Amino acid sequence: MASEGADLITAVTTGTNAAAAAARANGKKISLKIMTLNNSRQKINDCLGNPVEIGIAVMWKVTDTAKAVFNVDNYKEYLSLQCDSALRNIVRLYPYDVAPGVDTTGDGIADEGSLRGSSEVVANRIKEEIQSKVDEAGIEIIEARITYLAYAPEIAAVMLQRQQASAIIDARKMIVDGAVGMVEMALDRLDKNGTVNLDEERKAAMVSNLLVVLCGNKDAQPIVNSGSLY
Fold first, then answer.
1. Is residue 23 pLDDT above 60, yes or no?
2. What's the whole-model pTM score?
3. DSSP code per residue over 190-205
4. Is there a contact between 144 and 131 (Cβ–Cβ < 8 Å)?
5. β-pairing, 139-151 with 51-62?
6. Does residue 211 sit within a domain?
7. Same domain, 75 and 118
8. pLDDT by residue (tens digit) across 105-144?
9. Residues 81-84: contacts with CB within 8 Å, 24+ apart?
10. CA 162 to chain centre
11. DSSP code at position 130
């Protein structure tokens, strides 16, 4: 047993020394510190075909020097290439903003995942994708973060107009819903209290006037009717 233990220790020591010797022979110094990789921004089409620019920062370290030396020619270049590949694979699964009918998880059910709204989930999936590729190089991915995200310049202005139009439509819907509720409340109060009896034609005119006042972009100009209502 003592002999087998000594042989095992000798084998491990020999392997470590061989890796170190190979690194020295190739003029390489392998650091075991945590390092950061900032690849250049990439232009990638999202799942809807819209080009977006995205950049990531990856925190990593070497955990197995033998694999880093023997399994790949240049472990840093290998990591950089795998980061670019993983980024493209994951970004293509998501829309930039939440879009209806898009499945980003692969379970066949539409969800609200997006590059902008689910940045932590996207970053974690990128980290897992990179890790699966660099295990053979003796590298551990500690964290991946999205450092830059925007529409590509050629469509940025158009998409900004689209976002503004969507915001205006949502605001108008809210205004109209509120105005209709106020008109209904006014008519109910008038009927309930018996303040004034209006026929259907006068009710329609009142509804029209109130909606114009409540939904208009400008302040209403009051007009005093000094004659009879009818």
1. no
2. 0.65
3. HHHHTS----HHHHHH
4. no
5. antiparallel
6. yes
7. yes
8. 888 898 999 999 999 999 999 999 999 999 999 999 999 9
9. 82/130, 82/133, 82/134, 83/37, 83/39, 83/56, 83/58, 83/130, 84/39, 84/42
10. 18
11. H
- Please, which residues bridge with residue 38 across strands? 57
Residues listed for the chain: 230
98, 36: one domain: yes
The residue from 105, 129, 151 where one domain ends is 151
Record the tokens describing residue 69, joined without a space: 């030396």
41 torsion bin: left (phi>0), alpha (psi -120 to 50), beta (else): beta
Which residue in the block uniquely carries the two structure tokens 């084998």? 11
Spell out the long-range contacts of 200-208 with Cβ–Cβ below 8 A and sequence spacing 24 or more.
202/229, 207/183
- Supply the range of the domain harboring residue 81: 20-151
143 falls within a domain: yes
